[in-house]
Every structure is written in structure tokens, then in C-alpha cells.
Model the fold of this input.
Amino acid sequence: MQKIPPPVRFVAIVAVLVIVFGACGSLTLGALDQVKTGSPGSLLDPGVLIGNVWHFLQETLRILTTATTPNGVPLRSYFLSGLALTIEFCAVSMPLAIVLGLVLALMSRARSRWLRIPARSYVEFFRNTPLFVQMLAIYWGLLVLPPQILNPFTAGVATLVLNYAAYECENIGAGLAAVDRGQGEAAESLGMGFFQSLRFVVLPQTISIVLPPVLNDLIYMFKDSSLLSVITIIELTAQTTGLGRRYPVNYWQFIFIGGLIYLALSLPLARFARGIEARLRSVTHVPRTDPIVAAVQVLIASTLIGLLAGVLAAGFSFGAIFGAIGQWIGAVGLILFIMLFVLIVLGGIVSLPGGVVNLLKRPGKPDQTANPPVAVGAD
Amino acid sequence: MDALWNTLVVIFPRLVSGVAVTIVVFVFSAILSMAIAIPVGLGRTSRSRIIRSLCTFYVETIRGTPLFLQLSVWFFGIQVVLISLFGFNADQFVYNLLTAFDSNTLFPANGVSGLFFGIIGLSVNYGAYMAEVIRAGVLSVEQGQTEAALSLGLSRFQASRFIVLPQALRIMIPPLTNNLITLVQDTAIVSTVVVGLYDLELVVQTTVQANGSPLVRWGLYLVELGIYFLMCYPLALISRRAERRTQRTMAGAH
Done:
């Protein structure tokens, strides 16, 4: 091995890679083409194989450039509107999930058990039940609510936010735990209030720890939004499989285009997350972000992205924009409603027996010793 | 309340069989995905560039696309391809397999291909995620240990089997358990995509669609969420415990 000079070796490796991937890929494409067109000939015959692959790629190009449905709607606009819906859901849901996750994380680190136990039970419940079933339960279970509050859009956003808030709570909680407890105490002894110490001391150091897993969760949400198709939201996955079902001859072309759109967005995002992680972990990085400024920036950016995606999905008109904003407000209302409900009910179920036992044990005395104060108090 | 109770009594046998199907799907895909993940995860750390890039291609493609789309492709796309190219009928295959093991009672005579492709789809998906866990675990063991093992005369296979993997395993257990939790949750998706797999989710969903009363619906969904919680929460506890133990041993080692 040592005797081969590096350039030759490099060329040889690239050649082998091209041959391996090219052979596997063209066999796959050729086979898929043959299944759909029913053309005769053996796939092991190079002429037939190359013809099949060429036909497959031609069809893909045709769908991407000129193909329309019988009604004259270009097929590519289906993919675009599906992608726009997917992006709108992520842009609306992720900031809300982060905010609620922060609230939950602060609650679960508070001194009072009446804050801690509901937050912990909320997180455990939402992390240990399927997102999919939560979505169905919120949509089909709450159908008694008026359609301004509960429609497929608000139900989808609500599920994504409520579920991901639990995961963001874990991420942010890990970030808060990583900041030394003494820092919060020092800030308080300097006369800062709870929110001031959070804003100027604790959170700026947390951001660098929290950002990479949050970005990872954004990728997960991008993929999980495909579940929305079961509550009749026609996003990218639903468009892809639906097109495949309506035009079975081009099934595999649609699947390839849809899959490539997902890859084209999630792979760069994953690389970006990895790059940010490396940069934030480096020694030279000094945390000095003001979390409120960052939050406002993120909020403005995601609102703009959401609006743009909404316009792309529904077509431009002021009515559509106001409709979209109304939907978002309805979604926030639904989220707060369900969240308070779950916090109160679950927290009550989990904490009441313990609380009653405690009251019986020491009448008139709140339980302080059992819960030593933690880093960030909420008093 | 009465209506809910009556519905629960009526569908109780189907609920039990639904839970059984969910557990069957979970167990088989957990085993299969580990069988995929170990070679792929080790292949991602291999010295050969060809093996590495093949494994990377698989992992990145699977992790970059949604499970929902993949399951749909397995059931509606690849099933047809397998039948028309190789004459492989999954329905017939699984039916023969189940008959051989004399366990046909859980599944209908036709429509078992949903079970087959559901398990395959979940395994291929989770194989990629678990391969990443295994790769991270292997990379977290110091390079010097492999070199020391090699200089002691162990072969590369022996070094990874006796030196690297036992240490990596301890680091891998919490994230692998977390993956198992999401695997339990994702079994709920399968029955929506494939046809004829009556797992817990589909049993509840069909009952809900047939029932008009909001209270009954809510109750059924809560029961379903509760059952899933009972399946996932023990795994979460195991994961947390293993994590704490790993942290303690890591802290003790230094």
C-alpha cells in the first residue's frame, strides 16, 4: 500500500467510488424504470440498463420543467406549495416551542414544588407518548371547539409546539444546569433581580450549550411535520405520495424529487448545526449575546419566513396574510389552553397525593427541607 | 362516563391484541435495527474509504428524509418492485412463516405484508440513527487504546471486540435506550401508512372514528396515550439510570 503514490491512490479511490455508486444507482434506477414502464430486456444488459436510466432521468427532468396535470397546473408547484407549508409549520412552531421550553425549564428548577412537579410531569408525559397520537388526540378529540380555534392548522402547530416544548425543556435545563450555581447567586448578591440575572448572567452562557441540540430538534421537526398529513394538511410528504398515487407511472420520479427536497434542506442544516457546535465549543468563544435581542431577532426572522412560506403556499393576497396571522393567534390560544389544562390536571394527579401526605405529617408547615434550593430560584 | 366504560369493555380484546401487535413490531424492529446498526456504525469508522462512504450515504439519506415517507415508499413502492422484479410476495412469505410457527391468530390471512414492510421500514430507519450512536460511542474510546491493543498483537477485529466495544457499550446505552423509546412511539405511525396492521393506534383510531361522543373520544385517546406511556416510561427510567451510572464511573476514573 505504501508504494502507491498518493495522487494515483486518490484517483483510484475516486474511480472505485464512482463505479460502486454508479453501478448501484443505475441498477436501482433502471430497475425502477423497468417496473413502471414494463420495457423488455435484461437489466444486466448494459444497453438496456443505460436506456432505462436515461429514460428515468429524462422523465424526472420533464416533471421538474414542463409537466403539468390535466388541469394545466404545473407539477412542480405541488412540491413548492408542500414545501412552503412544511416550512411555515416549522417557522411558527419552533420559536414558540423554545419559549415554552424555557418557561418549563425554569419551572422545573424552581424552589416551589407546585411549579416543579407539574412541569416535570408535563415533560415526562409529552416525551414518553407518541407525537403522532398526541396529534390525533388534539385534532379528533377536541373537535367540539369552534373552528376558529381548532382547525387542522392550529391543531398541527399546537401538537408540534407542545411536544417539542418538552424536548426543548430538557435541552435548556441541561444548559441551565451547566452554568455554575454561584453565578446566579453572585448576580443576586449584586442586587440583580431574578429576571436581570437570567438575562445578563445565566442565559448568555446557556445559549452556546443549548443552540446545537435545538438546531438538531429543528431538523427533527422538519421531518416530523410529515405526520401532519394525517390531519388533512397537504405538506411535502403528502404532496409527494399523493402525486405518486395519482400518476403511478411516474411514482418513483415523484418520490425521488420529494426525498431530494428533504435532503437538500436537512443535510445543510445538519452541517450548519455541527459547524456552530464546533465554533461555540472553541476556547476563543465569549458569550455576550443579549438573549432578549436574540429572541426578538429570531422571532422577526421566523415570522417573515412563516409569512413568506404562507404566501407561497396559499398565493399572495392581503386576506390570505391576515388569515394566516389569525390562524397563528388561534394556534397560540389553543396551545395555552391545552398546556394549562395538562399542567394543572397532570400536576394535580401527580402531586396531590404527596402534598396531602405532607400536610398530614406536618400540619401548618410548608415542606422546605425536602427540597434543597437549586440554581435558579423562581421567587 | 358510562358510554366510555361500555366502549372500553367492548374493545378490550382488540386493545389487547393491538398492544401485542405493537410489541411484536417493536421487538422485531429493535433487533433488526441493531443488526443493521452495528456493522454500519463500525463501517463508518472503518479505514476503507469505500466502506465508509457507502455507510455514510445510507445514514445520511435515511436521516435526511422523514420516516413517514420511507414507510410509504416501502409499502407502496418497493413491495411492487419486489413482486414484479423478483416475484417476491411478502404477503405469501409472511403467511408461510407464521404458519410454520403456528402463530396465525394475531394477524389476518392477507395483509400481513403491512407487518413485514412496517418492520423493515422501521428497522432501516432506526438502523441509521443507532449507527450514529454506535459510531459516536466507538469514537469516544481513545485511539491510544486501539494502538496499544494492536501493539500487543491483537488483530483489528480482536481489538474492537475485546478492547473498544466493551468500553463504548457503556457510553452507548443511554442514547440507544432513548432511540428505543422513540421506536416505540414510531410504531404508531406504521399502521397509518401500511394497510391492515391492527396495532394499538389503529384499533383506537377506528373505534374513535365510529364514535360520535367527544367524551368517549377523549377517554379512548387518553387510554391509548396511557398505554404508550406505560411502555415508554420504564425505558426512560433505564436510560436515566444508565446515564447517571456512566457519569459516576467516568467521574471516578479521572
Observations:
- Residues 6-65 of chain A form one domain.
